[in-house]
Write a structure and sequence with these properties.
With 204 residues, the protein is of the alpha+beta class. The chain has 7 helices and 9 strands. The protein folds into 2 domains: 110 residues, Ribosomal Protein L22, Chain A, CATH 3.90.470; 86 residues, Ribosomal Protein L22, Chain A (Alpha-Beta Complex).
Length: 204
């Protein structure tokens, strides 16, 4: 499967010294086998077709990123999945991170450790944002959230969630506890894209 058969659109962002690739795909994306076998088993093990497409698409995007940066695709490296869910490669001197949400995927590669996350603003607009804010935000973040008009809350919450996820992925250990993470801590940046997604990147 070629790159242009996988994604509707594709862009490359420069955030905090990292190359961040972002792409969207269609609901009917055809999932084919990928390399290495460990990743293929992970893709195919998804019970939901939607998750299977996301896992496939983000791996294809990482393949694009690595080919552009190193001239070699994912099939040239050994990859393993850590107990926390993070994928690593002993063959790569580069650091990488991946994320998916709805019909979008993001992959970041850098000379320094990175964590990337993508979130759909529309998905947050369908949820009870006030209840979610009470569960995932720090006290200061909640004050900022509830001071906003209702129409601004989904995008604000999506940004904070993406930032917290990227910080967690940067560390790569333990259990994700969003209320214990401050979205503005560390070296973190969020970018809201015109297509309705938020991309967040954290690095050391």
């Amino acid at each position: 499967m070629l790159f242009y058969d996988t994604f509707d659109s594709y862009s490359k962002l420069q955030l905090l010294g990292a190359d961040v690739y972002f792409a969207t795909f269609e609901d009917g994306l055809q999932v084919t086998n990928v390399l290495p076998q460990a990743r293929n088993e992970y893709v195919q093990s998804a019970a939901e077709a939607k998750i299977k497409r996301q896992r496939f698409a983000v791996w294809r995007l990482l393949d694009v990123a690595l080919k552009e940066r190193t001239g070699r695709g994912v099939e040239s490296y050994i990859f393993t999945r850590q107990p926390c869910g993070k994928w690593t490669s002993p063959d790569l001197t580069l650091h990488f991170s991946m994320s998916h949400s709805e019909y979008a995927v993001a992959a970041a590669i850098s000379d320094r450790p990175v964590g990337v996350d993508v979130q759909s603003v529309k998905e947050f607009s369908r949820r009870d944002c006030a209840a979610l804010a009470n569960r995932i935000l720090t006290e200061r973040e909640k004050r900022d959230f509830f001071a906003l008009p209702l129409q601004s809350r989904p995008s604000f919450l999506a940004e904070l969630w993406a930032a917290k996820e990227s910080l967690f992925k940067l560390d790569g250990n333990g259990v994700f506890k969003p209320r214990a993470l401050h979205a503005d801590s560390g070296n973190t940046i969020c970018k809201t894209l015109s297509c309705g997604y938020v991309v967040a990147l954290s690095t050391v």
